Amino acid sequence: MVVPNKYLSLQQLKNYQFMKTLLFSAMAFAILTSCTQVNSNGEKTVTQGGDTVSDVNISLSKMDAVEELANMKEEGKAELIFKAGGSEPGWTAEFYADRLYLVADYGKDKLTIKRANIDLNQKMDLKIDLQSGAGDCILIQNKPCQNMAGDTEERTVQLTYKGKLYRGCGSFKK
After folding, report:
1. How far is CA 135 from CA 112, 151, 158, in A?
2. Which of 12, 59, 65, 84 is within CB 3.0–4.6 Å of 8 for a Cys-Cys bond?
3. What are phi and psi of 55, to 5 degrees?
4. Which of the pair, 3 or 145, is modelled with greater confidence?
């Protein structure tokens, strides 16, 4: 009867350690190369599903909007008359003495329109053409509106822009 040897020979032990090291190295290499790539600029980018961070459109439009508003205030043209906004998707429209500043679709779209002074304090509904084509307009209705926070604002506002309808509320700024 042949009894199996419980011990490995020196050669088998070396082969086992070599295979273990080789397998560990291959796994480490696969993990490291699958997490980063070097783009054409020589910069490393993290990947997920084939898309690189450099391919993702990261919007800084909120900061751009804040900077643009700050510049308007510096120019002395920032007398805010009426502000409207809504959510899902988020949008705001700010009416100044000489312009309308619009940010739509969570900052993806921005529009500034220089305009003649429009009497927003009318008792009737007011429709303002955005001069951007395709029927884009703002409709300010003379009826109260409850915003997402539960506060009542003076006007109900609808924005039609780039084929989307946005709903929200607006109030005069004092």
Report:
1. 17, 30, 13
2. 12
3. -80, -20
4. 145
